[in-house]
Specification:
This protein is α/β, with parallel strands linked by helices. It has a single domain (2-240), classed as Nucleoside phosphorylase domain (Rossmann fold), CATH 3.40.50. 31% of the residues lie in helices and 30% in strands. The protein is built from five helices and twelve strands. It has helices at residues 9-18, 52-65, 124-137, 183-193, 213-240, and strands spanning 2-5, 20-27, 31-38, 41-46, 70-79, 89-97, 119-121, 143-150, 165-166, 169-170, 177-180, 197-206. The strands form two sheets. It has a five-stranded mixed beta barrel with strand order 5-11-8-6-12, surrounded by four helices. A two-stranded antiparallel ribbon has the order 9-10. Helix 1 runs parallel beside helix 5 (213-240). The radius of gyration is 17 Å and the shape is globular. The model has no long low-confidence stretch (mean pLDDT 89).
Amino acid sequence: MILIVGNNHDDVLYYESKLRNKTEEKLYKRFPFVTGTLFSQKVGVVYGIYTNYVSSMIVSEIIKNNHVVLVINVGRCQSLQGDIKVGDVAISRQVYLGEVSLLDVENSLLGQVPGFPQYHLCDHYALEMMNDCFNRVASKQFSHVCSFISLERYINKDSDLDDINLNNMFFGQTKNIVFDNNSGGISLACTIHDVPMVSVKIVESYIGEPRTLNGYVNILKKYSELGKAVTACIGEISRNEVIMGK
């Protein structure tokens, strides 16, 4: 199974509409989980997944009960002024847990859960395949390979990042940085279960600028381009039959 994860229904509606032989259930009577086939590949779609707490729990649950070969996290993210443009697509190279600060525990680094790496590298094969699909399919959108910093909150102003901002560097990064609220939990669950993952998100707004209904509508219009590229990647995986050594 390839698992697609989104914050809300809008994030995953394109993929759900493409599935055949669909079945639906609610995990813990709360989180809609739709399964079906796409290009002869079994695909699962789950949404309502906000925060790293929830994403780690739900993705772990699905992985334990299904043969998941790849997790794709889709939706929206934020970027810094002067970095990735609003409307462009961010593809994750690595994911940081921005809320974790256990510096006094076992010589841990900022963002590091003791016993785990400071950041979680996304699968190189999936990243390259996703980037290639965007170049071929989504010609109207620019994609960028980025560092994702995953927090438990939306960032409304620059000062909200003061706890992880060191001389305008975030975990040693100065550009190609985006922020979301569920990639961290997904990456942690995938590290535990040894399942590859990649986040593919559209930049909804710059930090410090208000999110507006009009802006949200404009992002929704771009979801079809995002969806075409992601489904093309799933088709490529289905044709190759083997993914990431699984």
